Amino acid sequence: MPASGQSRFGRRRIARSLAVAGTGIAVVALPLFGATSATAATTTSTTASTTAYPDNLDGWIRESLDVMAQHGIPGSYESIHRNIMRESSGNPAAINLWDSNAAKGTPSKGLLQVIDPTFQAYHVPGTAFDPFDPVANITAACNYAADRYGSIDNVFGAY
Q1: What is the tally of structural domains in the chain?
Q2: pLDDT at 49
Q3: Which domain covers residue 64, as residue numbers?
Q4: What is the pLDDT of residue 62?
Q5: Contacts of 90 (CB under 8 A, 6+ apart)
Q6: Does any domain span residue 51?
Q7: Which of 48, 68, 90, 116 is most buried, taking the most CB atoms under 10 A from its CB?
Q8: What is the CATH number of the domain that holds 95?
């Protein structure tokens, strides 16, 4: 873990949450000229709620599901988890250097073992443009699976 006490992926957690949930807007009403303190408008603040996700596999899947829901990408927690465990055993830094994709120079990367061209084609706005970012990897892979198979729920082997 870095000296800052945050994991490699935790630093982006706040930025990712804001990108997904939006930012809050503070509204302040100021009194007009001549208004007394009794008639001065009060300050009102509204903020968009942000969900804090744990910086672990459960949190990455749950955050991905929230992003997927915003973009109409189908998939369930159970199917995403099942595929992650088969593809990377839950290691977001996993890279496959031995299969046919690797032999062609495009190794599979991340939790759901996505190759760069697929990640680029199926990247979902609001996530990092990094195939090793857990949420971006899951969301792009599920977007690809939805396009190709109808949903990640229909994937039971290498895809």
Answers
A1: 2
A2: 53
A3: 57-154
A4: 98
A5: 57, 84, 111
A6: no
A7: 68
A8: 1.10.530.10
Task: Dump strand ranges (E) for 13-149.
Answer: 25-28, 43-46, 95-96, 108-109
**126 and 61, same domain (yes or no):** yes
Residues in the chain: 159
> DSSP character for 149?
H
Taking alpha carbons only, the member of 68, 98, 93 closest to residue 80 is: 68
Phi, psi of 33 (to 5 degrees): -55, 135
Model-level pTM? 0.71
Do 116 and 106 meet the contact criterion of CB atoms below 8 Å apart? yes
48 touches 22 (CB < 8 A): yes
Backbone phi, psi, residue 108, to 5°: -75, 145
Residue-wise pLDDT for 76-108, tens only, equals 999 999 999 999 999 999 999 999 999 999 999
Task: Kindly state whether residues 144 and 69 are assigned to the same domain.
Answer: yes
